[in-house]
User: Fold this.
Amino acid sequence: MPKSKVFVLIDCNNFFVSCERLFRPDLEGKPVVVLSSNDGCVVARSNEAKAAGVPMGAPAFKHRETFKKHNIVTFSANFELYGDISKRTISLLTTITPRIEIYSVDESFLDISALPITDYAEWGRGVRASVLQHIGVPVSIGIAPSKTLAKLAAEIAKQNDTYQGAFSFIDLPEEQKADALRRMSIEHIWGVGRKLAPVLRSEGVSTALGLMNLRPQRAQQLMGIHGRQMVTELQGTACYQLTREHAPAKQILRSRTFGEDTSHAYALEAAIANMATRAAYQLRSERLLAGRIGLFTNTDRHKPGYRRWTREIQMPMPTNDTGQIISLLVKKLGEFYSDKQKYHQLGVFFYDLTPESALQTDILGDVTPDMHDRAQSRMKAVDDINQRYGRGKIYFAAQELNTIWQPRRKTASPRYVSKWGEIPEARIA
DNA sequence: TCTGGGGTCCTAGGACCC
DNA sequence: TCTGGGGTCCTAGGACCC
Assistant:
């Protein structure tokens, strides 16, 4: 019988806020929130902001009073900064073991089954101290025989200061494990969200322990196959393994809510051009081609007369050529556009992604392989220039038609680490 | 006035076929 | 005119995640 698995979850606490504080140490201990694009929703809160009663995902405009009353400092999200701090953290974790899964910008799983460790919680506290010292970001660490339990363990570590940032289910006596699970409500379980929590509660299951003891068949009836796997994982048997290497994308989507609603066709065209540019760049950087491309746009769903339009194009030959994509999508826009509508948001998406290497020439189509090659070398030249001289140095004219679509960012922090002009200065007196 | 953006996976149901 | 059962494929929508 193989030795059972040991997974670690390293979860950065209040990650976006912690990143902002790295460059603003004066904000340590003060209430801070980070807002999404258009300063719409709260996407990260410091502990002090949580204590002041600001909910996660809350629309910012509903809480302006609370922000004022508690002197809460707000930042517009600065994803370039967070991405950079995230990369540094990951490269530090990679020195522990190469068996790492980058789960999100602020969470990674490690498989440490093969590491010679006797006291896991103590080991976890060491990792926490190292990340704090080298990166400056506080983390919570959960260690367990399954990923679902590791997520719960990290949550326990975060909630309870006595564990000093690390909690382990490995070698924990059955009675203590039951106690810990009894104290965690089902909402904290990975895979139980807004809809499933009430379903479980009406079944009389309100804690992690309750779900662990639910009949697997019943869990599957209530929640589908994931429910059954959740029970098994809570019992301490791993269903989910480490997902190594970034799996190729299955779909790519770029969308933005506009800075203000617009009826102008050229504003929509500019938005299409920008979304398509970013999405197609991702396609090319992953060496993929899109077999289906499309766009959607809608009016404000909080206003009467809400409408949504979606159009798709089946490509005769898969593409990643920004110019071709923009012109096809702008043409599609013309099929439904009306200057009587107030458009609020627009997105561009790609489906049926295939590797460039698998390109099948469409012998009956009017796109010849030669045309495809020319498009390829044109886009390569654009990418090379932008990579060398900075994003957006060279672009399609349509991108510049209008800027109404651009989201508002009232309180963005400087791009400390990715723009030379915004690097912080330090003076030594 | 003001409510984000980017993903994955599963399932139910329809179309179609034998 | 009426009709069973089962399989496949596709899509839309729903659930979840951060």
